[in-house]
Design a protein that fits this description.
With about 150 residues, the chain is an all-alpha fold. The chain has helices at about 10-40, 40-65, 80-100, 100-120, 135-150. It is built from 5 helices and no strands.
Amino acid sequence: MSAPQSGASFLPIAAMMFAAGLGIPVFASLNAGLNQQLGSPIAATAVTFGIGLVISTTVLAFVGFPSASDFTLEKPWFYGASVFMLFYATAIAFSAPRIGLGNAIFFVLTGQLIAAATIDHFGLLGVIQTSLTPKRILGIAVMAVGLYLARKPV
């Protein structure tokens, strides 16, 4: 795995990830609404993924498809990303209409903080290893407290 990016190349990546973060609650709201319209979180997720498949395949037609030899089972756990995305999309479609979008995202973000810190600390799944220092633990704790304070009591 390569070293973390720094300097000028870091800012565009950070901006892209900030935009992705803005998109997560929008995605959650839209998928939850589709769940309510269709009466099924699984159907909503299937429609969302179906449209995503069409769009991503169209983009690949322009930028180029990976070669068939790239699709190996050398590291089969990488394909597990689809299972986690499916679970997230279905869970958010199910839970947001029941406990509120803010509360659903609160639990998602708390889980992300814990998982990200653990994965980074141990360098799991091929990511860059970043030790969990007291300063990072304090930062994560402050974020978790902030998330807790921002959630809406049910």
